[in-house]
Design goal:
heterodimer; B: Rossmann fold; six-stranded mixed beta sheet
């Protein structure tokens, strides 16, 4: 087991100083991009609450710690996160490093991949295609940090017209006290292809950990991509997990973000509708407890006409937890006949829970159908009484209503085994009752 | 089985029950009638344990399933249900996402547990569902859906009686079960209730209209007016109310 000390105190300049020895996996793959990231890091800092996008989410608990790179070689028990009755191709990252032993050995069918650490030159074009979709003009600290200190990642290509029968299950495990991991996944779904990707973010030992995970995908014309994101870490985790999706014409993208457990979570989901007749489904539920903080920021950029985006986020906040939902929808001037729907429903279970929700719609086209609705309230007392009048305890009644509340989000998971697995995990955590 | 003495209850600062007294013995069916606003639904809610209502005076003694003398006001709603009280709601709640079957199974398990019984096996449970659903002609399809979701008014009321049949209470409180029902639904609901009548089970049937009582023939009829029971009689009283309305009662009381 090797340990490299990274100190992170108050200002990011200190991090840079102490991380100087670490070689980002992008050093030989995208050196220019890496340089750019390093210079951004020289000019920016951890975001403060004075920045609009970080108004309700504090980063001090991350910047105040000394984070380490831990490399573990032993075995980890991932049985809890294996999805029963689903045949998948598994790829495991342990503290950001690809773990061959725990990953599937067989050759994938209909798709190919390479890790960033063992980069295959034949995947260079694939990586370039995906990178070209996203122009980071903004000087974003976290994405620059991810690039500058990236441990490992993948470049995946789903072959043209391939219908992948076995979902790709990426498991990101974190372990060790104050461990840091940065991963980067680039996925190209070629025209006409269909694929399911499951991303599980888990903790092996409930220790304090910080992970930055970036997932970029180019969904080409007529392709379909489903991402099922299961966040089941510990209340000691700090996780930033970002997806950037670029959709070409006639493509379909569906992502379901499911928070089972986590401490500090910031999810950024950015979708660019760049081709006509594209469809995008963004759904999620989060059930923070105790002192958890769950922040979901979404952005759908309708650049062209005739696309549809549908957002559904449900949140139940317990104890003293806090949550954020910020859903931006841009409909550009030429994006006529856009359909953009956004719904966010939040339930506060205690007086100390707090939710900040902000829909942001900027609509510049004049022939569109856009709606947004956000409600924040308490659990339906009439429904609660109805269940109790049938003999169910208060806890069981609340858990049953929780299941009912997130049911329509869970329905967006079209693969039954995944739905059942997540439901069972929620039952185990006493969050749900069916 | 149920003795209500001088019950006073209020909600949002307004007193609705102003000294209600009622005694129900095992096996009896008591009908409670009265003009709108008299406190009929309040009585049902207070008996079932809805917390919005504050009981300011009086007592309710109940002979439960596991204990003989229960001070009902001491028990939470779920405990009252476990001791054999069932409220058939006037406006049954729709709970999308909660399967009718799962909900009933959980409920039945709780109630059986309280009575020292093991939960039913899946097979036995389904058998029981089939049997009881027949009593109210409730289609198998409906039992597979979410609680009351997309149910018509009549179906919701039948679902209430179906649940009551499944949970086998000692005291069934029907809160205006007949409201919004057409003739057929009324017949079916009544037939379900009648099938559950037994010497060990009592019913408090709250209704505005007499016609339900043609189907569910009561042993006693009480008139609830202005938060108190002002007149009691047998089923003939119901017929008299049907003919004459409530004005003569109001006059009698106010005199």
């Amino acid at each position: 087991m090797t340990v490299t000390e990274i100190t992170s105190k108050y200002k990011s300049e200190e991090i840079l100083k102490n991380l100087k020895g670490f070689d980002s996996v992008f050093k030989n793959i995208l050196p220019e991009s890496l340089e750019k990231s390093l210079s951004i890091l020289a000019e920016t800092d951890f975001p403060t609450t004075r920045q609009e996008d970080w108004k309700y989410t504090r980063t001090a608990r991350i910047s105040n710690e000394i984070w380490k790179h831990w490399s573990f070689e032993g075995n980890i028990d991932l049985s809890e996160h294996i999805i029963p009755e689903l045949d998948v191709h598994t790829i495991v990252f342990n503290n950001g490093e690809y773990n061959k032993k725990l990953s599937s050995a067989e050759k994938p069918e209909g798709w190919e991949f390479c890790t960033l650490r063992s980069f295959d030159e034949s995947m260079k074009q694939t990586l370039a295609k995906v990178e070209a979709c996203f122009h980071n003009d903004k000087k974003d600290f976290f994405s620059a940090f991810n690039r500058a200190f990236c441990n490992d990642g993948l470049v995946i290509k789903i072959t043209k017209n391939a219908k992948i029968s076995k979902p790709i299950h990426l498991i990101f495990v974190q372990q060790g006290e104050l461990s840091l991991s940065n991963t980067h996944i680039s996925l190209l779904a070629e025209s006409g292809s269909e694929a399911d990707v499951i991303c599980s973010y888990v903790s092996a030992d409930n220790q304090k950990a910080w992970g930055n995970h970036y997932f970029k995908a180019l969904v080409e014309s007529n392709a379909s991509l489903n991402i099922y994101k299961i966040q089941q870490e510990s209340d000691n985790n700090f996780t930033l997990a970002q997806e950037d999706i670029y959709q070409e014409k006639d493509s379909r993208f569906n992502i379901v973000t499911m928070m089972v457990e986590g401490g500090w979570i910031r999810n950024n989901l950015n979708i660019i509708m760049a081709g006509q007749n594209g469809e995008s489904y963004l759904s999620g539920f989060y059930l923070p407890r105790n002192k958890d903080h769950s922040d979901n920021h979404t952005l759908v950029d309708h650049r062209v006409p005739h696309c549809t985006s549908t957002e559904l986020y449900k949140v139940i906040l317990n104890d003293s937890s806090t949550g954020v939902f910020n859903g931006k929808v841009y409909v550009r001037e030429d994006a006529q006949k856009t359909n953009a729907y956004q719904t966010n429903a939040n339930i506060l279970m205690s007086e100390n829970a707090q939710m900040n929700t902000k829909p942001e719609l900027e609509i510049y086209a004049d022939d569109v159908k856009c709606s947004h609705g956000t409600t924040t309230g308490q659990i339906d007392k009439n429904a609660l009484f109805y269940l109790k009048s049938r003999g169910l305890s208060e806890e069981s009644s609340i858990r049953l209503l929780t299941a009912a509340f997130i049911n329509d989000v869970l329905d967006k998971v079209t693969l039954e085994p995944i739905k059942n697995h997540v439901t069972n995990q929620l039952i185990k955590k006493n969050l749900l009752f069916v | 089985m149920l003795t209500i003495k001088n019950l006073h209850a209020k909600i949002d600062g307004k007193e609705i029950l102003k000294g209600l007294s009622l005694t129900v013995k095992a096996g009896e069916v008591h009908a409670i009638m009265g003009p709108n606003g008299s406190g009929k639904s309040t009585l049902a809610s207070v008996l079932a344990g809805r917390e919005d209502y504050e009981v300011t005076e009086g007592s309710i003694e109940y002979e439960g399933v596991t204990k003989n003398k229960i001070n009902l006001l001491d028990l939470a709603a779920e405990d009252r249900a476990r001791e054999g009280i069932f409220l058939a709601f006037q406006y049954p709640i729709e709970i999308p996402g909660v399967s009718n079957m799962n909900f009933l199974k959980a409920s039945l398990t709780e109630i059986r547990k309280h009575r020292g019984l093991e939960p039913l096996s899946a097979k036995d449970f389904l058998q029981l569902v089939k049997e009881k659903a027949k009593l109210v002609e409730l289609d198998g399809q409906l039992t597979n859906r979410a609680v009351n979701e997309g149910f018509s008014g009549g179906e919701k009321k039948r679902n209430e009686i179906f649940q009551m049949a499944m949970l086998e209470p000692k005291l069934g409180i029907l809160d205006e079960t007949d409201s919004g029902l057409d003739i057929d639904a009324l017949r079916i609901v009544s037939q379900g209730v009648n099938a559950l009548r037994s010497p060990k089970r009592s019913f408090v049937v709250i209704t505005h209209y007499q016609r339900l009582l043609e189907h569910i023939v009561p042993d006693f009829v009480h008139v609830l007016y202005n938060g108190r029971i002002v007149k009691s009689g047998t089923k003939e009283l119901a017929l008299e109310l049907e003919e004459r309305g409530y004005d003569w009662i109001k006059e009698e009381v106010n005199a």
